[in-house]
Amino acid sequence: MAENSNGIRPLVAGNWKMNGLAAALTEAAAVRDALPSLGTGAPEVMICPPATLLSQLASTSRGSALAVGAQDCHPSASGAHTGDISAEMAKDAGASAVIVGHSERRADHGELDRIVQAKASAAHRAGLSAIICIGETNGERVAGLTLTVVERQLRGSIPGTADKTNTVIAYEPIWAIGTGLTPSPNDVAEVHAAIRKNLEDRFGADGLSMRILYGGSVKPSNARELLSLPNVNGALVGGASLKAEDFLAIIRAYA
Ligand code: PEP
Fold first, then answer.
1. Per-residue pLDDT tens for 87-135?
2. Would the CB of 183 count as within 6 Å of ligand 1?
3. 44 is catalytic
4. Beta bridge partners of 97
5. Known active-site residue 109
6. Residue 169 belongs to what H/E stretch?
7. Where are the domains of the chain?
């Protein structure tokens, strides 16, 4: 098992966003089939497909090392919420985790920290891990507000039910998502250290062991440098998770 300085097994999670018809499952199958050859140094690997593919991906991945996650959930377990899916439904379809508070949902659907917190809490209620996304806009970064924003999002988005087994934080600077831009290694290390301190202050020993992923234009060429930084316990990968070859190259940065 690959472990970094905190003894945490890294997680590399692919977020397919609104991409992928059934034919794309061949990419996920190629990832699944390559995992056994990575041996004991491998990180945990997850793919979060669109909701339409959750159940199919979960059934073709059952018994393998590939975990499956959902991209969002509603805070309620069921009810009159047309078009939404609940954490219980994602779990029923075979997910073990759900992404909440992705910046695209915060922007496109006006999700505030308290909604993200309710969704993370719903994930815990259903027995799923919550991958809680936080990160600053470019304007906030330029104004020197990165740590202020990140700390506010941590305070507002993580529910009291969080512990080291059911919660993962994904630091995703919004300006780095899908742009090819990444913060400098020093900047990533500084923000992750601040997140770690915040988690430790609030959750004690569990806060020291919660995974903190970096996300935003991770690709094969920068994965090793980004993923070897202190307090970076894996990656949330968008575009580069769509092709098995690229995603596996990122996974191998840890293996
Ligand atoms: C994301 O949206 O979670 C993400 C990290 O995207 P990309 O890797 O494409 O920047």
1. 999 999 999 999 999 999 999 999 999 999 999 999 999 999 999 999 9
2. no
3. no
4. 69, 129
5. no
6. strand 167-171
7. 11-254
